[in-house]
Amino acid sequence: MAVSEVVSQRAFARTPPRSATTRLLEDERWLAVVLLLPTVILLGLFIAYPFVDGVLLSVTDARVGVPGSFVGLQNFESLWHDTIFRTAVWNTFVYTAVATVFKLALGLWLALLLNRHFKGKAFARAFILLPFIIPTVLSTFAWKWMFDPTFSVINWTLFQLGLIHTRINWLGDPNLALISVIIVNVWRGVPFYAISLLAGLQTINPELQEAAAIDGARPWQRFWHVTWPLLLPVTMVVVLFSVVPTFADFQLVYVLTGGGPANATQLFATYAYQIGVGTGLLGEGAAVSLAMFPFLLIVVIVQLLYIRRVEVH
Amino acid sequence: MPRMNRRKLLKLSGAGALAARTGGIAAILASGKAPAYAQGTTVHWLRWNDFVPSSDVLLRSQIIPACAKDLGITLNIEMINGNDIQARTTAAIQSGTGPDVICALNNWPQLYADSVADVSEVAEKIGKDQGGFYAESTAVANNGKKWLGVPWCIVGAENAYRKSWFEAVGLSKFPETWDEYRAAGKKLKAKGQPIGQALGHSFGDPPTFWYPFLWSFGGMEVDKNGKKAALDSKATVESVKFAVAFWKDCCDEGGLAWDDSSNNRAFLSNTISSTLNGASIYLLAKREPDKYQTEKGTPLWQDILHAPLPKGPAGQFSYQLPMTNMLMGYSKQQDAAKKFLAWITSKPVYQAWFDSQGGYTVGATTIWEQDPLWNKDPVMQPFRLVGRGAQFPGYPGPADRRAAEVLSKYVIIDMYAKAVQGMPAEDAVKWATGEVEKIYA
Q1: Between A and B, how many CB-CB pairs are < 8 A?
Q2: Which domain holds residue A31?
Q3: pLDDT per 10-residue tile (average), chain B, 441 residues
Q4: Chain A interface includes B61 (CB < 8 A)
Q5: Are strands B321-327 and B101-105 parallel, antiparallel or unpaired?
Q6: Do residues B150 and B142 lie in contact, with contact meaning Cβ atoms separated by under 8 Å?
Q7: Cβ contact (<8 Å) for B265 and A274?
Q8: Which residue ranges form the domains of chain B, and what is each CATH number?
């Protein structure tokens, strides 16, 4: 018997017997299940369960403290005929579309500026994050004061500069009210775009810009043909992460206008709260909330498909 | 009438314990003294942050110790923003855990009728002993089958107006009719002293003004039986037409964006001449005379008077903000909480809280009309009788869940807001009628 065989036999003999669990985990399929389990439990508890519960709630006539019975799609049918709901749908689309365009444009502009070398760059980058860091409710209260019909500092400034002669009714005029809440959303959302796009810009190899410059490309051509295509995948992800919370925004409008005047700023989420909590009609409130889902699903699918296509190419 | 001070409050013990063992709540109330509970019983009471801070101080510094001494109950009082109480109540009911007693505003008890305990025994005894509850308090706290809570108080709403400014336009007293009010408001607005009224989405000032405004023209959302929507009427259209003219001629147009505190700030800053509000404007101006002054530099409170809303073609109406203490059905402290409600609403204990309010609220029972507090300050006199004749949304039908839905969707408020923003009166009424009919269908 060779020495190596003796050693290997002894080593084998000393190995303690493997437990059933160990043997099971040595199978990669079971190991994968075990490793994924915590994530599945977390997602199930905090995402799947509330979602499924919301779906079940939306097909009942549940009220606060009363479980209710199955009513099929009756809640959705009544929403279809609800003029306030239609207003909320329109407002939500306008709010999301306009705010997203402005956040993207301003965020990209800021990112391009911050990507240059200048004195105090680090300070400027930190400072620009402030609107994003301050709790939304707090900053929105400050905006509420700035838009106050009687004491608006914006009106005061414009008046002192001689630009207006009568005050602007920021939150009282239906059109201006929607514009005002969009302004606050843009103000709050621009830093997220700026910093995320800045991170994207910094991954672009400067040599590509230099090569384009040597070939005679002007700044705008360099941006359009070099920077923008390379930044597009990041931009799509940023837009995706922004559109979803903007579409479902609640606290900003709740603090500024409560959905008024005359529902001019009513959004999906504020109306769902008004129905579900204010009136106690949990089934109908859940239906309003759930009505957002198809729109958001389409947005997410389109964007993810686009990102995938860009990455493949 | 004997006043209630801290010493007397703390004396309320002893005999109450015996009464509790032998005769229940009726006996406690009859004796005016409270039972002693075993240590360790805690009652959690959720209520709003009071607009009169001294009342919150009183609850913490005197009522909590007195409750421990008299009932042996540890009272845990939680105070939050009034706008957040509904969200807390909903979460508590759905999860089956939370405060034992919740002080509800408006007709919220009707929304939670299936989730609150029956407190008829306590409420009926309190009502009987204290001259009966006001109709509005009964309408919101009783659903015809049981008492859904024990009525706590009514926050009075009266017009606070600038005496000197009204005198300057030739009025020695507040206008009695809407036409007179509009005529005065037109002159005042021309002088840069408009009337200020909220017409946005806020639970206090907009409904307490625009509902009585509708009623005073003969408009109503539902018929007397509460079965058929009745908003679509000539009276409603007339009220909307008048509202548009009144708004344009007399009001601060920023009111479309006002919340419940905006008119307070505007009045205290001398920018509006009159507004429907609780007594908080006057009480604050009086408490801080150096801070709140007229344009002439005199204390503002000396130039404030109060008056009810004017009369319309169908009469004079008011909607005051009622508050009700609900004992939650999920509470494991049913017995202790009932005894707490009987104790806190009993006259000797309630007296201390009532005094601390200084007239900002009136009691839910009629006995408080006779309190000497009303003799202290003639400017507060108009608040004394606000409980009488006050109506609640749903009028002339019941203040039920459907009325609460019309209220919480701001249908009546938005009817006026849409018209003020340019929609023809007939179209605004048509839109609101459609919403009301769906709710009452």
Answers
A1: 120
A2: 19-58
A3: 48 43 46 53 95 92 95 95 90 95 93 95 97 94 95 96 97 96 97 95 91 97 90 97 97 91 93 95 94 96 97 96 96 96 96 95 96 94 91 90 89 96 96 93 84
A4: no
A5: antiparallel
A6: no
A7: no
A8: 6-156+320-378 (3.40.190.10), 158-319+409-440 (3.40.190.10)
